[in-house]
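Progress note, project year one: complex with guanosine-5'-monophosphate.
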Amino acid sequence: MADKTIFTRIIDGEIPGNFVYQDEHCIAIRDIHPAAPVHVLVIPRKPIPSIAHLTTEDHAIAGHLLMVVKKVAEQEGVAESGYRVVINVGDEGGQTVPHLHIHVMGGRQLHGHGTA
Ligand code: 5GP
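Model obtained:
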């Protein structure tokens, strides 16, 4: 399908992803251009374009994604040292892939607010 996002193609196994976690609702993969030693993307299997597109039926998955962020941080060894969680929304938010995803970054001292 022409309108599949790159993340749906990874979920569907059409292109490879470096998986660190998956369950029936979401996957977690290493970012292909990591901004930190740990840079994982937590992505719902449902192709919700962004936070702006969440509906009341997404209530459970939205909460689940944060619980998976916590799990991934523990698994990656940054839960104690600290890490950053970023969700970009829309053009001015810097979102480049229109499929909701949560950046989990850590493993070095981070400054400012962004993904750098
Ligand atoms: P955004 O800018 O939309 O918040 O974040 C998209 C992220 O997806 C970027 O950090 C980018 O490096 C990552 N990305 C883009 N294409 C791929 C890909 O094919 N595989 C993986 N693992 N990450 C990707």
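Strands lie at 19-22, 26-30, 38-44, 83-86, 102-106.
The mean pLDDT is 96.
No further modelling is planned for this target in the current period.
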